[in-house]
Amino acid sequence: MNSLDDLRPEIALSQQKLNGMILPCFENERPLRGMLGYLDWRFNGYFSKLLKAQVITGKKDETVYVPLSWNQRTYSFLILGMGPLKESNRRVLSKTALESALQKMKELQLTKMGIADSEENPDGWVIQE
Tens of pLDDT along 47-60? Predict the structure, then answer.
């Protein structure tokens, strides 16, 4: 029997219902919050290390592919730069960022990917130009 908990990304990942996630990252939000912050904690600060090394920055429309191994399985993460938080509302995903993520998924032949949400965004994303 499925429950709403089955739809939670962290559960879907651990139950291997997803191969990875598309994760928004704001340029000026440190420490990381939302699903990216949760996964950073689960992966022992790996995403924070990428930020410190400036592999990911959170700059608007940045798309970075990050493969990680967990429980003897490789997961794919696409980090989407959302720009500064003051300019970007937590509910708004730019059409350019989404198109970039979908193109990258196609290039890398990624399937079964989820898009991260957070407590601040319970109603889902609004796509804007």
Answer: 999 999 999 999 98
